[in-house]
Amino acid sequence: MIGTPFFSELADAQDEPLLSWPRRRLRAFLILARRTTPGTTGSPASRPKACIVLPLACFIIASLLTTPAMAQQDGAPELTPEASQAIDKGLKYLLSNQQKDGSWSSDGQKGHAVACTSLALMAFMSKAEFPGFGPHGEQLDRGMKWLLKEAKKRPDGYMGAVMYEHGYATLALSEMWGMTRDTDDDDAIQKALEKAVEVILRSQNPGGGWRYQPHADGGEDLSCTMTVFHALASARQAGIVVPNETIAKVVKYLKNAHDAETGGFAYNEKAAASFPCTAGGAYIAQLAGQRDTEMVNAALRHLKSQAPGVFAGARYYSYGHYYAIQTMVQAGDEEYSNWYPQIRDALISKQNTMGAWGSASKQGIPYETPMAIIILATPHRYIPIYQR
Known about the structure:
Elements: H1 5-10, H2 21-35, H3 50-75, H4 81-96, H5 113-125, H6 137-153, H7 163-176, H8 183-202, H9 222-238, H10 244-257, H11 275-290, H12 294-305, H13 309-312, H14 317-331, H15 333-350, H16 368-376
Helix pairs in contact: 2-3, 4-16, 5-6, 5-7, 5-16, 6-8, 7-8, 7-9, 9-11, 10-11, 11-12, 11-14, 14-15, 14-16
């Protein structure tokens, strides 16, 4: 089977540190199962027998999805009952604020709907709930279909009003790809994802970063670059081609954004190092293959120097911690085990009676809510880009 065209199209590994074998294996067997099922595409001569592949695919998928759950029971005591309750309460809040068309927004009037819908879907996926599956499969399916409908409206592939939204949409599409019940939806996700990645690639600025709009001459800032490259790393991990040159330019940009004196990362050349930018800068540097460099180690020291105050409050609190916890995951068990309990307890204490974080309303959802859920659900490790 290794010599078939199917495997070669997924196996252009590009010598990349980003590509996760478990993720590739899951994606491969999902698509292979589809192609060996009557009525699906693929040359009969190149397809192994379905009676062999389908059970094997089911076994692989089941093992990959249940392993984190077992780890939670046996090796993740940090996911306390209080944390699980906070996650469930937050997800219930999101469900109660989903629009009739399947979307979520910040104001109930389609404000930042692409970003809010994408983050909400990610929040559910962080607990292994995917479109068409689980107790809320139907609601998530509506959310996915709304996002795909938005993608079809833009033949140029750009989603949302700013690159932040486009980044979150690309990330959600990447993590949903291969995990839907309907193969037609999966094909639509692939097409939308490929176009979304094309937008990111062609809008990278000469300095290596991105700015608010998809223009290669529009300037760059670290905050937008964090969001966009996070999505690009996920897409590459899923099998979408991302040139090594693109990653090399990001690394060059990060080196220029890094403050050697403090160890932190700054929003731009005129700004001082900040907690959110240091967290996100370190994380995307890790994803770009810089995990053990002094640049990343210095950023980790800078982040830890902000504790414990940063758990009580910080500018762009949820946004910063959304990246900080993933930075600690990538840094190793010791860093993670020291950081997660502190942000876990802080978030539990900050959740309001509605189940939300941030300035909640009955009309829309604050972005802080899905981000807080994703942070709390880190021990699950269901989403491949959030795994080490």
